[in-house]
Structures are given as C-alpha cells and as structure tokens.
C-alpha cells in the first residue's frame, strides 16, 4: 500500500489560526484503527466548522466515516476501548475554545452529555433494556447536576413532556420496550437534551423509524434547536433527511470530505459525481423507482486499501473524463468551486457544470 | 448481586404482570414440575426396573450375589416386591410418596411414613432417611462452592474482558481451560496431597455428620469447595468474559458513555447488570444439578452426600435408593429451573410471566 | 463432568501423580527398614506368626474401608470381610482357630465345648454348650437361641443374601417355612434340629455331609434371640453374643463397637477382646484410605483387598516393615465354555493352556507380589485338593507359552489354523480387561483369535452367569476370579464344577462342565467325614479337570496389606482368605 498523499493543513479551508473562531472546529481529523488485516483509515483528514444555532448535515454511505467522526468528537473512541488495539486519532477538535483530543479524558467525559450530547440510530438498542426511561434520564441528569432524585425526576418528566410524550409522569416509569419506536426516539432526544447541551450530534436519528414518524422527529429536532440554540450535526446516508434541516452539508466518501458547502449549493449545484449519485438515489414521491438515473453503482471502498488517485474512481462514470489517467494516480484536493463551496474532483469546473446541467439535473 | 449493582437510582418497575397472574403462573409451573418429576420417575423406574428385565436380566439374581439357590432368588424376588406386576410395583411406589407404605419385615410390619420413597434393599432403612441425611452435606457443598465459583468466576471474567488480550487475560483463560479440563478427582487428590498430607494444614473429617461442629464442617468442606469451585469458576470466567465482551459492544453501553457516565458505573451498573442474565441462568441450572449430588467430589473427599449415596446404591443394586436420589436430583433441577425463570423476570423487565 | 474417559485409568494415573508429588516432597527418600521413625515388625512378618503378641487391653482399634459390610445380620452376610469382623459380636458353635496361616483352618469349639460328636453314620451332630454363655442384656444364651438363629435361614423372603448350606443340608426339600411363618408357639418347628436341653443341640442330617461343621462356623450358624429379632431390620442392630456390641451403625458411613460387659471371658477361650472400642469408617476414596493408614489415622483396611497401586508403591518403599504380601485363597481363572465350539474339543482347550503365557498375565496383574503366583491347580494352595500336578509344564517353563505344542493340539482338534471366539472381562475389576487383552495377544501367536468383550461386573451374574446369554453372545471364554466360602473342596469347588450347579441365572459353572465322574467325586468327598480321604478325592478331581483342560486357573492372588504399627496380635488367617484375624487384634497405645 502506497500512500500517495499526505495531508498537511486543512485543505480547502481558511488557514487555521491558533484559536479558532467557530464554536466547533475540526481540523484534519484522522481516525485510524489498526487491525490484523491492516490499518483501517475510517476518517482520513477531515476538517469543518460549525457555529452555534447552525446545523451541519454529514452525508455518506455506511463506511464513509461519518459515524466515526461523530464518535471522535464525543471522545468515544478512547473511552472504554478495553484491550482492543487503540484507535489512532490525530488532528484537532476545538469545542468552544477547548481542544478535545489533547485534553484530559476526564475533562472530556465531563463535557460529554453536558456540552455535547448524542442521539443514536436505534433507540431500542441504545437504551438500556433493564432500566426505566426515567431512571436513564435521571442518571444522565445527575451525572452533571448535583441534585436529589426527586428534582432529577421532575426534570425528566419535564423533558419527556417537552419532546412530546403524552402522560410523561406515567411514561417516565416505563421501560424502553414499552414505548413505540417514535416515542423511544423522543425519549432518547429528551435524555440527550436534559443537560441543555450546546452541541447535539444526531447519528441517523430517523433511520430506524417509519416515514411518518421520521418527519415528526426531524421537526422535533429542528424546533428544539431553535429553542435551545445548539449547534447540531445530523449524520445520515439520506440527503432527504438533511434537505430541510441543514444549513451546511458535508459529503463524505472513503473517510474524506468530497464536497461541502451551503445546503442549497450542494443540492442545486453539486460539483462531485458522488453527490450526484446520492441525489439520484434519493427517494422522491414524484418519481418512479426505475427512473432514478444515477444510482451509485458498486460498493464503498475498502478503508484499508483505499483506491489510489480519487477514491471514487472505480465507481465514477466520469473517471476517464480528465486526461492522463489522473483520476487513478493523483488524489484530488478540495477546491473551492463557489462561495463557501468546495469539491474534490479532477474534472474541470466546466466539465462538471456541463455534465450537471446537461446529463444529471434534467433527470432529477 | 445485580440488584445491588443497579444502585439506588433504579426504581422498581411496575409489575409486568399482576400478582394474580404471577400466582397463576407459579401454580402452572409447579404443576409442570410435578408432571416432569412423574415423567422422570417413570423413566427412572423403567431404566432400573424394566430395562434389565427386557435385557433378559433378573434384578433378583443381580442382587443375590453368591446366594444363587433358586429358592433364595425367589425369596429375594418376594422380598423386593419384584414378583408383583410392574404396574403394581410402580403404583405402590408412587402411592407411597404421599401416603406412606407398610412393609412386612418378618418379625413385624414396618411403616414407612410419607414421603415414602421405599425401603433400602440393603440398609433396611427408609430411603427418605438416607436422603435426609445426605441433603445437608450436598447442600453445604453446593452452596459454598457455588458462592466461591460465582464470585471468583465472574470477577475473573470481568477483569479478563476489560483487559482483553493482556497477559492477565491470556493467563486467566488458559487457567480456565485447565480448570474445565482437569477432573475433580485429580485436582482433589492433588489438593489433599498438598494441604492434608504434605502440609497438614487441613483435617478432613471422614464422613461428615450433622452433629459435627460448624468448624469441622467448614474445615472438611474447604478443599471440596475450592476444588469444585475451580472446575466451575473456570466455566463462569469464560462465560462472563464472553458475555461482557458482547454487552460492552451494545449500543446502550455507548449511550451510557455518551451521557458522560464514569467507566466504573458503565461496567457495573450497565454492563454487568446485563451480563448477569445468562450467568444466572447457567448458575441456577448448575446449582440445581449440583444439589442432586456431586458424585466425583463427594467420592473423592468421602462426603456422605447424595452423590456418594447414589454411588453406593448403584454398586449394591439398591434400586429404591437409586430411584430416590434420581428423583430428588430431578426435582432439584426442575425447581432450580423455575427459580431461574422467576429470577429472570425480576432481572429483565422485558420478560413477562404468564 | 468429563464422560467417556476411561475413568479407572485416569484415576490410577492421577493417583500415581499424586503419590509421586507427595512422596518426593514429603517422605523424601526414607526407604530403609531401620529408618528411625518406622518400627514395623518387618516385611511379611504376619504371614505365619503372630506380630506383637500381647495381652494388653485398652485403646481403640480403627478400621477403614471403601466397601461397607453387606449386612450385620449373621444370617444375611456373604462377604468374607464381614465374616471375619462379625466374630467381635457374634459367636457360633464352632469357629476357626485363632492361629496364623493355614493353622487357622482348624475348627474349634466356640459356643460349644468342642467339635461335634458325630454319629457313626455321619448323620447326627451333637454339641454341648459352654457354661456362662450370655447375651448383651445379660440373659442366658441357650441352645434354643442357636436353633432360632439358624431357622431364620429358612425365611428366604426376609432373610436374604446369606449362604444356604445349612438349609440345603438339613431340609433339602424346603419343608420348613422359617420362623416367621412357624405356627408353633416357640417358633422352633424345624425338626432337623433338636434342643433336648438348654446346653445341648443336636443336628439330624438326612444324609451325611463331611463339611457340616464348616457350615456351622459361618455366621449363618449364629444364635439370634427370638424376642430381639427385628426381622429384616436386624442388620441395623444385631444383638451381641460376643465381647463387643454395636454402639452405633450408620450404614455406608461408620460402625462403632463398645465392650459388651455381659460377655464373660471364662466362657470364651477364643477371643482375647483387647481393644476397648472398635470403629469402622467407610470412606469412598481408596487412595486416601491408603494414605490415612500410612499416616496412622487408621490401623487396618477392613475390606482386606490390598492396597491401591499408588498406596503400595509408597508403602513398600517407605514403610516396608509395616507391610505383608498376603496370599489370598482367590484364584484368577479363564473358564473354557464347553458349549461353545470348538472348545467342546479337549484338544482345542489344551491348545489354550499351551498358548497362554502365564508369566505375561502375571505381569499384567502386577507381578508376583501385587498380582500373585502362577497357578497350576484348580484349587488354591490352602484348600485340600491342591497338588503340584503340572501336565502342561506351566511351572516348569516358568509360565512361558509353548506355541509349538499349542499348534500341535490345534491340529488334533481339527483346527490347524486356529479358531476364533470371544472372552468376557469385567470392567469393574482392576486390570481384568488388561489381562484379557494380554491373553488375546498371546493366543493370537498360536492362531487363536479372541475378541475381548468388556462387561459390567455388577451384571455378571446375568451375563456370564446365564448359559443362554453366553450362547447368544458367542462367548467361548469368561475371565473372572473365585474364592472359597469355606476351606474345603466343597466350599470352594462345587459351584464351579458340579453339573448340578449349572443354573439359568447366577451360574458359576461357567465352563458348563457336565461330567458324571466329577459330580460323583463331589458326592463321595462330601459324604465322608474322613478328611484325608476327602483330600485325595479332590486331588483326583483336580487331576481330571486339568487333564481335560476344563477350566484354566492362572494366578493365585496375592495382595499388599497394611499392618498398622500400633496393632498387636496380628497375623494373616487362611480361614479368612488371608485377612488379618480381626477378633485377635489389639492396639498399643
């Protein structure tokens, strides 16, 4: 395995200053896992910023590194990884002026749940089956607040009420399995927000839910964000989920960012063939399934032997558009393709614009 | 144990089923236990009374030893009731359990009070007396060993899981493999060779009696406890390790960490609580099986428990005692099973009785 | 728990490892007879003389054993160890002399003043009882108690397990139904026994039996006090006529005897009654029992079957002076089933005799010391009838096989290429299966192919004991062992060789010898009261059985017995199969 490319400073980003101005700033984050088969580069040089009150959508297939990124921010790659070969993490994660990767793990633990909280994909498996919802919320609250159980319980009921669970004073004593899927996710959200976190990471928050409930949960997240003013990261494989929710969108492929920019730009002027694929495979109510034009063919790349050149080249229908086989030898860097809009592709701006407007957009 | 670990913040769940359904469940299960014991009784009776007959053997002859005159064998047949039709023998036996039985013994008639499991062919004592004498020994052996192996096994397993791949983990798991593989009579003999004969630290009382002091019981049972615990602790260490590793990979453990919970609380309150479920299941069954008699341990250390009683009974063709011990063992396992199921419902709120 | 392991071998292996561990660390070397700590009387000291002769009373004599007594009811026991032990609390009209070795085979008066006065026709035995005989409650023991005790043998549906010799001799047709069904007031309805007065008892035999006194010396001849007879439960607390009485008996666990203060020494010249107390501990772990014996926790193994492999290694190495290599009356044999072809042909049977490497079998059983001597006669050396007759030259060749002769016999048998058959060996008997496998390898050299079939020894009476099963399964040979009920040709050999003792079940004439001449010799030898004549008849029987190659003995069994150093008055008694004579034992403080 030859490493063709070594990332230096945050590519395609403004030059990093010592103290970042953004609320959350991730700089050149790398999360590598040593395994018997080789080094798995789940996240390999990721940078982005997020302000309070804003929502970032991280989109990609499974294995693109989006969940690993979120766990990396939460510091959950190092907590409780017993005996396993430790994840190798480098880069910088700045949260509200504090760098987390170099911080004392105990301090990061104190931030977890209080300043940054997380909602997981499957609330049934993410909630402990043996404890009541109330017990679990009370526990989350009392870790960070020195209050008695009664107070914490009142707080739990209040939160359940806030996320729209009927009869919260009764449901607080129910077990997760006694809740419906949507209610469970509401309870999960209640638990994450119980400490008023400033950063909320929602990892596929609606994937396990049916369509109507999905919309309710997304509405809930949006409402709560407005109310609490938190920064939110929504991680999903489905562009549709973040379409109305996100201010910015970051598309990940093979552990790296292939395109990022304001949501409307990514949706209406996408400049990466992978983003086109994602847009093409978005379920839309007004379209028959067979009409989807660019389903992303093939499977996600191996994170051990990442294809040389552009990681997307084996699946890219336009891999041969650039000259000299460059897509297979040189890794494309993120380049600005418009205001606050970056993409990593060897094709020229003109080529991409032409393909988008002539071949892709009409079929969407 | 899991309860304690769950800590004060855990509020009792509203009963998944009302007390009435639990009672109905209990009655239904106890009835099932009764049926099962009857089936075991029938099976045991068939194995020990009928199979020899079908195989062309004659229990009376087996029992006669060297006294093989035809008249003597007929006498034995009459004495053991083997001259009666099998169904009558079986019915008399079953009837005797709740009602008691009368036995002619030549000089007079002996009443075998309920629960009458028959009269020993050899000692001429009611089988129930033999069982009653043996139970405390087996009970003390099983209880002590169980506590030891549960604590040692679970602790070792947890530490191994948390230090997966470490030297400790590998040593513990190799030790566990050894513990599982080494037969009790080997470890027992080695332990006695060292602590009883070589160092002289421990005196093992030959044949425990109920009138021996607690100190004597403790000293005598110490090595058997350890040896038996070693055998089982190994299994529990492996089971705990595997379960803990599974549980630690669960999403709710990640959730607990994401809440900012300290690692100790994550392990005890969240991980161990879940890991205890399969462990307690196996534990209940093991304990139940052990209460039916730890044959090898009891033989090695000469502890007059149910296992030793069974061995002696088998070697002397003492069918009623064999039957009695088998029945008791089946009952112990069935009851342990029931207790495990009840405990399950206590531990895991998802389990409903009914 | 591991299943499917050959547990016996594993156990033996474990025991060896433990023995090695313990002996290398603890006893480190002292293999010297004169080792200061060990003051044993010497190797084999108790075989033919009394070790530590003493009349000193007191102390506790401590027995240990794996196997409990079969029954403490004198009419219900058939184990040799129980018969030996029972003399502590049970007396009989006559009993074996308390002398070392073969001298013990002599019968002397016990309850009776001496051996019987036998009528000229050999059909009437009259005994006079000693004065001062008592029961443990102090009451007088009379001739009627003896009669009642013996009558209990007739109650075959209550008093099971014991030998029936007396009943078969006095009432062969079984007309009497036993005391429990006896309508007479004193329950003494058996006509063959008369008690003209309390001090006299007379036995009327329908036909003479020269061994009748031997029957009376067995515990079945013991008195039982009628109003103390608890029937089947008598085993739980037998009423004592001897110097000790049962203090407590917990079957399968322990027995404790204390002095019977009602017993009068003057009435009993046999029993020195030295210890104040006697305890028996039943303990399941043989290896442990051996260690406890060597450590002095116990004095004697009550089972008397010899030490375990690991125990005897340590004992012989470190405590040689406390050990006896005892000659038992047990014979290891292979029965050659006449009903199985071609073993119906004498030449094929002889071929087996020649092809067998007796020395090899001896080695498999543990060598000359732990296994025993090579056998040449169907009788053990202690039974009148044994001779050094050796037509196959087994002893002359030091046990080696003669394959040439074996092949020659096979030719005469019409099987020049050999033949095939099956042999049984009992899995619960140490090294029997190994021995059968060794025999298999030996016979194969002569072309005799045998297949070893391991059977459960506990079931043997309905496997090898059933001619039907033997035929169905095609067994041509059965390997087993045999010891005498009492030390005469009848007491040893009749179940083995008499055609009238072939039973459908529980048969011990495993060769199925149906020979009128043999049956006739038994009749003649039993009928005579002349011991010399009986001896020559049994010698004649031995010659015929060996010439016919009917039944092949191969080892006279020996074992290594622990003789506790604090024991006094110790000697091996041939009458009790080489066991120490328990009733004579005392203990030094």
Question: Can you tell me about this structure?
Answer:
- The complex is a heterotrimer of chains A (364), B (354) and C (589).
- Chain A is an alpha/beta fold.
- Chain A has two domains: 24-115 and 197-363, 3-Layer(aba) Sandwich (Rossmann fold); 125-196, no CATH class.
- Chain A has helices at 66-74, 105-111, 123-126, 133-144, 149-162, 168-171, 181-193, 211-228, 239-243, 263-268, 273-280, 349-360; strands spanning 24-35, 38-50, 55-59, 88-95, 98-99, 116-119, 199-203, 231-236, 248-253, 256-262, 335-338, 341-343.
- In chain A, the strands form two sheets. Chain A has an eight-stranded mixed beta sheet, sandwiched between helices.
- In chain A, helix 4 (133-144) packs parallel to helix 7 (181-193) and helix 5 (149-162) packs across helix 7.
- Chain A is globular, with a radius of gyration of 21 Å.
- Chain B has 354 residues and is an all-alpha fold.
- Chain B has helices at 2-6, 19-54, 59-64, 70-79, 86-99, 127-162, 167-181, 184-198, 214-248, 251-258, 263-291, 295-301, 306-315, 319-347; strands at residues 101-104, 109-112.
- Chain C folds into three domains: 38-67 and 242-326 and 562-587, Periplasmic binding protein-like II (D-Maltodextrin-Binding Protein, domain 2, 3-Layer(aba) Sandwich), CATH 3.40.190.10; 75-236, Periplasmic binding protein-like II (D-Maltodextrin-Binding Protein, domain 2), CATH 3.40.190; 327-558, Dipeptide-binding Protein, Domain 3 (Dipeptide-binding Protein, domain 3, Roll), CATH 3.10.105.10.
- In chain C, the strands form five sheets. Chain C has a six-stranded mixed beta sheet with strand order 13-17-12-16-14-15. A five-stranded mixed beta sheet of chain C has the order 8-9-10-1-11, with helices on one face. In chain C, strands 4-5-7-6 form a four-stranded antiparallel beta sheet, covered by helices on one side.
- In chain C, a hairpin with a 5-residue loop joins strand 4 (117-118) and strand 5.
- The radius of gyration of chain C is 24 Å and the shape is globular.
- Chains in contact: A-B, B-C.
- Chain C: One of its GO terms (molecular function) is peptide transmembrane transporter activity.
């Amino acid at each position: 395995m030859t490493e063709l490319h070594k990332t230096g400073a945050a590519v395609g980003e403004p030059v990093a200053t010592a103290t970042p101005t953004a609320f959350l700033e991730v700089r050149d984050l790398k999360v590598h896992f040593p395994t018997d088969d080789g080094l798995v580069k789940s996240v390999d040089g990721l940078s982005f910023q997020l302000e309070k009150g804003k929502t970032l959508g991280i989109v990609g297939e499974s294995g693109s590194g989006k969940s690993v990124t979120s766990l990396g921010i939460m510091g959950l790659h190092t907590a409780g990884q017993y005996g396993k070969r430790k994840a190798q993490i480098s880069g910088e994660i700045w949260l509200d002026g504090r760098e987390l990767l170099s911080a004392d793990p105990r301090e990061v633990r104190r931030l977890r749940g209080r300043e940054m909280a997380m909602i997981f994909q499957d609330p049934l498996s993410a909630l402990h089956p043996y404890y009541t919802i109330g017990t679990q919320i009370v526990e989350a609250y009392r870790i960070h607040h020195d209050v008695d159980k009664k107070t914490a319980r009142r707080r739990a009921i209040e939160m359940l009420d806030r996320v729209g669970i009927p009869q919260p004073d009764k449901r607080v004593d129910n077990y997760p399995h006694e809740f419906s899927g949507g209610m469970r996710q509401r309870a999960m959200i209640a638990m994450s927000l119980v400490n008023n976190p400033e950063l909320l990471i929602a990892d596929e928050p609606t994937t396990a839910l049916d369509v109507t409930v999905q919309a309710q949960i997304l509405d809930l997240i949006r409402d709560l964000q407005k109310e609490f003013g938190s920064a939110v990261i929504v991680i999903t494989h489905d562009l549709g989920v973040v379409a109305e929710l996100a201010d910015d969108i970051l598309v990940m492929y093979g552990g790296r960012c292939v395109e990022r920019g304001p949501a409307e730009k990514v949706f209406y002027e996408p400049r990466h063939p992978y983003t086109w694929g994602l847009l093409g495979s978005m379920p839309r109510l007004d379209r028959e399934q067979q009409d989807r034009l660019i389903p992303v063919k093939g499977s996600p790349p191996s994170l051990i032997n990442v294809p040389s050149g552009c990681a997307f080249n084996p699946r890219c229908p336009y891999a041969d558009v650039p000259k000299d086989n460059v897509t297979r030898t040189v890794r494309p860097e993120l380049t600005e393709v418009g205001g606050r809009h970056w993409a990593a592709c060897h094709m020229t701006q003109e080529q991409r614009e032409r393909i988008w407007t002539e071949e892709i957009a009409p079929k969407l | 144990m899991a309860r304690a670990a769950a800590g004060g913040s855990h509020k009792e769940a509203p009963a998944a089923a009302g007390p009435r359904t639990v009672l109905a469940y209990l009655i239904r299960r106890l009835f099932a236990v009764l049926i099962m014991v009857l089936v075991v009784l029938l099976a045991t009776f068939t194995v020990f009374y009928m199979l020899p007959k079908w195989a062309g053997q004659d229990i009376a002859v087996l029992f006669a030893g060297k006294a093989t005159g035809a008249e003597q064998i007929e006498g034995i047949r009459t004495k053991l009731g083997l001259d009666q039709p099998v169904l009558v023998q079986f019915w008399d036996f079953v009837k005797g359990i709740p009602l008691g039985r009368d036995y002619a013994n030549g000089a007079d008639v002996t009443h075998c009070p309920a629960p009458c499991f028959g009269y020993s062919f050899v000692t001429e004592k009611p089988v129930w007396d033999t069982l009653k004498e043996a139970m405390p020994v087996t009970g003390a052996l099983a209880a002590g060993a169980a506590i030891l192996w549960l604590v040692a096994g679970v602790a070792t397993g947890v530490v191994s899981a948390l230090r997966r791949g470490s030297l400790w983990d590998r040593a513990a798991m190799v030790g566990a493999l050894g513990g599982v593989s080494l037969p009790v009579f080997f470890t027992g003999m080695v332990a006695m060779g060292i602590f009883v004969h070589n160092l002289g630290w421990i005196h093992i009382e030959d044949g425990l009696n109920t009138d021996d002091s607690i100190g004597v019981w403790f000293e005598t049972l110490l090595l058997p406890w350890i040896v038996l615990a070693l055998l089982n602790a190994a299994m529990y260490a492996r089971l705990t390790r595997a379960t803990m590793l599974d549980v630690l990979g669960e999403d709710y453990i990640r959730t607990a960490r994401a809440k900012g919970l300290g690692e100790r609380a994550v392990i005890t309150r969240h991980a161990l609580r879940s890991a205890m479920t399969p462990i307690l299941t196996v534990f209940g069954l093991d304990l139940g099986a052990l209460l039916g008699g730890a044959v090898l341990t009891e033989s090695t250390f000469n502890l007059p428990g149910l296992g030793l009683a069974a061995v002696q009974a088998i070697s002397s063709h003492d069918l009623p005692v064999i039957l009695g011990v088998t029945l008791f063992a089946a009952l112990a396992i069935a009851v342990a099973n029931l207790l495990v199921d009840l405990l399950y419902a206590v531990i895991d709120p998802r389990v409903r009785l009914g | 728990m591991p299943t499917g392991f050959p547990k016996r071998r594993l156990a033996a292996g474990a025991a060896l490892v433990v023995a090695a561990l313990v002996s290398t660390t603890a006893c480190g070397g002292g293999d010297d007879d004169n080792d200061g700590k060990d003051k044993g009387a010497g190797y084999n000291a108790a075989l033919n003389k009394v070790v530590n002769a003493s009349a000193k009373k007191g102390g506790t004599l401590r027995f240990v054993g794996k196997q409990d007594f079969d029954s403490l009811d004198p009419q219900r026991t058939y184990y040799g160890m129980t018969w030996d032990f029972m003399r502590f609390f049970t007396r009989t009209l006559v009993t074996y002399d308390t002398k070392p070795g073969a001298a013990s085979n002599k019968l002397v008066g016990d309850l009776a003043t001496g051996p019987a006065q036998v009528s000229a026709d050999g059909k009437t035995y009259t005994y006079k009882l000693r004065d001062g005989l008592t029961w443990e409650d102090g009451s007088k023991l009379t001739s009627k108690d003896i009669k009642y005790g013996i009558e209990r043998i007739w109650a075959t549906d209550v008093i099971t397990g014991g030998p029936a010799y007396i009943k078969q001799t006095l009432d062969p047709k079984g007309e009497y139904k036993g005391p429990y069904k006896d309508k007479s007031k004193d329950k003494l309805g058996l006509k063959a026994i008369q008690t003209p007065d309390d001090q006299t008892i007379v036995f009327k035999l329908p036909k003479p039996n020269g061994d009748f006194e031997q029957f009376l010396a067995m515990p079945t001849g013991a008195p039982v006090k009628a109003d103390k007879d608890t029937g089947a439960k008598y085993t739980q607390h037998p009423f004592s006529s001897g110097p000790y009485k049962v203090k407590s008996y917990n079957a399968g666990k322990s027995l404790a005897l204390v002095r019977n203060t009602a017993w009068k020494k003057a009435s009993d010249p046999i029993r020195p009654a030295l210890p104040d107390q006697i305890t028996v501990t039943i303990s399941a772990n043989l290896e442990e029992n051996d260690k406890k014996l060597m450590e002095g926790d116990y004095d004697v193994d009550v089972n008397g079957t010899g030490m375990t492999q690991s125990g005897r290694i340590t004992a012989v190495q470190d405590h040689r002076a406390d050990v006896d290599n005892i000659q038992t009356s047990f014979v290891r044999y292979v029965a050659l089933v006449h009903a199985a072809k071609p073993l119906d042909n004498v030449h094929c049977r002889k071929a087996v005799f020649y092809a067998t490497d007796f020395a090899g079998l001896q080695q498999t059983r543990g060598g000359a010391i732990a296994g025993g001597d090579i056998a040449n006669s169907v009788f053990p050396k202690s039974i009148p009838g044994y001779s050094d007759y050796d037509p196959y030259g087994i002893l002359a060749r030091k046990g080696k096989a003669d394959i040439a002769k074996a092949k020659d016999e096979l030719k005469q048998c019409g099987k020049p290429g050999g033949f095939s058959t099956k042999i049984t060996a009992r899995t619960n008997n140490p090294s029997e299966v190994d021995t059968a496998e060794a025999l298999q390898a030996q016979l194969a050299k002569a072309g005799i192919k045998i297949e070893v079939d391991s059977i459960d020894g506990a079931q043997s009476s309905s496997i090898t004991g059933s001619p039907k099963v033997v035929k169905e399964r095609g067994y041509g040979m059965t390997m087993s062992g045999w010891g005498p009920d009492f030390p005469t040709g009848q007491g040893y050999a009749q179940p083995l060789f008499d055609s009238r003792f072939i039973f459908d079940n529980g048969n011990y004439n495993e060769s199925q010898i149906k020979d009128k001449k043999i049956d006739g010799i038994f009749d003649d030898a039993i009928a005579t009261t002349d011991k010399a004549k009986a001896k020559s008849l049994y010698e004649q029987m031995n010659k015929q059985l060996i010439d016919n190659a009917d039944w092949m003995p191969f080892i006279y069994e020996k074992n290594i017995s622990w003789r506790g150093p604090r024991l006094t008055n110790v000697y091996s008694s041939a009458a009790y199969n080489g066991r120490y004579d328990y009733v004579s034992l005392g203990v030094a403080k």
